[in-house]
Amino acid sequence: MSLIFFPPPLQQINSEITRDAGVNLYVLRLDLMHPLVNGNKWFKLKYNLLEAKEKNFTTLLTFGGAYSNHIYATAAAGNFFGFRTIGVIRGEERLPLNPTLSFAVQQGMQLVYLNRETYRQRNTPALQEYLQQRFGEVFIIPEGGSNLNGVRGCTEIVGNAMPTAGYAYAFDHICVAGGTATTLAGITLSLHQKQRAIAFPVLKNGAFLAEEIESLLTNYLASGLPAPYTSPASWELVCDYHFGGYAKVNDELLLFSQQFREEHEVPLDYVYTAKMFYGVMDLLKQGFFSRGDSLLLVHTGGLQGNVGIEERSQYGSVKPKTR
Questions:
Q1: Cα 206 to Cα 10, 30, 210, distances in angstroms
Q2: Dihedral angle at the C-alpha atoms of 85, 89, 95, 101, nearest 10 degrees?
Q3: Pick from 52, 130, 161, 294: most CB atoms within 10 A?
Q4: pTM of the predicted model, to two decimals?
Q5: How far apart are CA 38 and CA 304, in angstroms?
Q6: Mind giving me the DSSP string for 14-57?
Q7: Who contacts 16 (Cβ-Cβ below 8 Å, separation ≥6)?
Q8: Is the pLDDT of residue 11 over 50?
């Protein structure tokens, strides 16, 4: 399989909810860019891979949980571009490997496990120095690609991924699911000042991401790296749709995802996009958006993670979680 990317389709969603709310709603289908390296993952990896190549690194090391889309994409991209890859995984090893980690190993990734207490120190100089001593000269990509290279790539999502130049300005609100907030930071730097970016954190108590966003934006604008605008557009966090926390789902979310796919032919991943889509549709019912508004929902991929969650659900280990 080659690393050829397809232009992401822009798909309109027509439903009773959008008609009642009087809005135009579109989905940017980043999930269809490539079978393995798609969604926002490619945008966050792109400039990290280029820097690693330019500095003659042969090994990439990154971090993630057992169902991490970032681990999955890094393993695939590393294999495509001829890098050795190491994935530092949060928690203990569990055999047999779940589909995400099994795929990573198939792509040549070496898995290393850290207990949760040690994993929390992943961004500290002490732990990174230990990893450099253990594995030699490695190019370290933070969890989720959350660095300035990642932000740079995400400035290209809304503008460069659009089917026609300038079309992005037709949208009043650009909505995205949030994990590390890197994607939101990049998007806000690519929007006109009259537009607004809205992130739906998938973590419990996600308001803490506001500080992360401000830090990423401040550091990026001070870095001299290219940005479409010299100041970010307005943004906000909607923190009410995490469904209990990261990778937590319940029957309501599973049913919504199933119905949305059947009605609109758009599959959603349970960890990220399903929660954002659910939140947007719920807010439309509440009149959160003004009549006549145009909304763009960024589908960030990650559908591979559904396999593991569906397997857990099949055997009854997915317990209902309240929002």
A1: 28, 24, 8
A2: -50
A3: 52
A4: 0.91
A5: 11
A6: --HHHHHHT-EEEEEEGGGS-SSS-HHHHHHHHHHHHHHHHTT-
A7: none
A8: yes
Q: What is the pLDDT of residues 283-312, one digit of tens each?
A: 999 999 999 999 999 999 988 878 767 666
Cα 196–Cα 241–Cα 319 angle in degrees, nearest 5: 160
Residues 6 or more apart in contact with residue 223 via CB below 8 angstroms:
148
pLDDT, position 302? 87
Closest to 177 (Cα-Cα) out of 278, 320, 106, 84: 278
User: What is the per-residue DSSP string for 75-107?
Assistant: HHHHHHHT-EEEEEEES---SSPPHHHHHHHHT
* Angle at the Cα of 129 from the Cα atoms of 141 and 116, rounded to 5 degrees: 70
CA 5 to chain centre: 18
Picking from 110, 31, 37, 108, the residue whose alpha carbon sits closest to that of residue 77 is 37
Question: 65 with 247: CB under 8 angstroms?
Answer: yes
In the chain, the amino acid numbered 96 is P
Q: Which pLDDT band, with edges at 50, 70 and 90, does 320 fall under?
A: very low
Q: What is the DSSP string of 157-208?
A: TTTTTSSSTTGGGG-SEEEEEESSSHHHHHHHTTS-TT-EEEEEE-STTGGG
Q: Are 143 and 246 in contact (CB under 8 A)?
A: no
